[in-house]
Amino acid sequence: MKKAFRYLLSASVGAGTSKIVLTEKEWFYCFEEAKKQSLAGVLFPTVKDNLVDESGKRIEPLFSEWLGFLVQTDCLNKDLDGKAAMLSRIFQSWGYQSCILKGQGVARLYPEPSFRQSGDIDIWVLGKQEDIVQCLRDQFIGIKNIDYVHSGITIFNDTLVEVHFRPSWMYNPFANRKLQRFFKDHAEGQFGHIDEKLGFAYPTIAFNLVYSLIHINRHIFEEGIGLRQILDYYYILKHSSKQEREDAFNTLKSLSLKKFTGAIMYVLQDVFALGEDLLLCAPDRKEGAFLLEEIMRGGNFGQYDDRNKWYDVNQRLKRSLFNAKRNMRYLIHYPSEVLWIPAWKIWHWCWRKWKGYL
User: From residue 209, how far is each of 19, 165, 228, 245, 287 by CA, in Å?
Assistant: First the structure.
């Protein structure tokens, strides 16, 4: 990571100087990195007063482009908020409680929620998976790629929606059993955590301290992760209490995620200068440096990782073989998950076949 982008990131969360002096070339570099990490919107408040060249003159073409990007992000967030509320009302009319995961809920923790770049809508629906799937079919909702955790549905023409039957999973079956128990034990508090102004429920801080880190961990073994997910966790920690952090770390340790948690803490401290009093545990420098390199190479969800261009997304066999090879480099870092991946994938295919989801 170049120093210019590091300065910009730390300043955006109030950890560095508010005055940033960069060359024109460095500003263009920062914009490209911001887009790569899906952080262009949240960085703009810091950028707008500093975007000048060496002579002190504002770099108008870049300012206009960055501002345009922010306006698009703001409009998209307002649209997604409305659609999330609509989805919640729809499921409620069908007799199901729901909770919006990740994006639109986590955005509430940001200084400017509408500046956080979002993508699709993930909605966790309370009920038996078979019943929810049948309900969607009875309502003539297009449903595809049904698996253990979620399914895509076609309800909006311009927005992807994933219906979650479970918030997430782990490959290690013993750890996954504990994780599903955690979700079950804390479900009531999530579905009841309704923001009346927004019109939908979203997870509590205590829940997100565990769930969001699990979500980051999942994407390590799939596409990859970016700094946007790390910044999400930064704001979750900023809004957490000491007791919530202690409880979360105990849960994460029970899921064999102590090393990964230490890596995330290192990235949070190194990139965003998060105070030691807010860390879940001591940072793991070695693991954290490895993880940060992966993050900077791949960008948001690994979209910019040249290693991921070996296959077409629709070539399932090639993708599976590539992921198997790719995950071997994580073996020494996260063995409890990597070693279980082949067995889990075989079980998952058989489970989907048995359920009639293939």
Answer: 32, 20, 16, 7, 20
What burial class does residue 204 get, using C-beta atoms within 10 Å of its C-beta: 0-12 exposed, 13-18 middle, 19+ buried?
middle
Least confident range from 208-212, 269-273, 300-304: namely 300-304
First vs last C-alpha separation in the chain = 43
Asked if 41 and 69 touch (Cβ cutoff 8 Å), the reply is yes
Q: What is the pTM of this model?
A: 0.91
Range of the domain at 323: 314-358
Rounded Cα–Cα distance for residues 113 and 110 (Å): 5
Query: Using CA atoms, how far apart are residues 155 and 166, in angstroms rounded to an integer?
Result: 20
Query: Does the residue 66 lie in any domain?
Result: no
Going across the sheet that includes 150-154, the strands are 98-101, 121-125, 161-164, 150-154, 142-144
CB of 257 closer than 8 Å to CB of 176: no
Write phi, then psi, for 162 (nearest 5 degrees).
Answer: -115, 125
Question: Looking at the structure, do residues 92 and 194 belong to the same domain, yes or no?
Answer: yes
The total domain count for the chain is 4
DSSP code of 121?
E
In terms of domains, do 180 and 239 share one? no
Total residue length of the chain: 358
Whether residue 237 is found in the same domain as residue 194: no
Judge whether 76 lies within some domain: no
- 298 within 8 A of 229, measured Cβ to Cβ: no
pLDDT tens-digit profile of 166-212? 999 999 999 999 999 999 999 999 999 999 999 999 999 999 999 99
| Chain position carrying tokens 């969800």 | 301
Q: Which residue has the tokens 């994938």?
A: 345
- Residue 62: exposed, middle, or buried by beta-carbon count in 10 A (0-12, 13-18, 19+)? middle
Return the biggest CA–CA distance within the chain. 68
Instruction: Tell me whether residue 20 is in a domain.
Output: yes
CB 338 within 8 A of CB 331: yes
Q: Are 132 and 215 part of one and the same domain? A: no
Q: How far is CA 3 from CA 9, 101, 231, in A?
A: 10, 33, 18
Residue 303 has pLDDT above 60, yes or no: no
8 A C-beta contact, residue 31 and residue 108: no
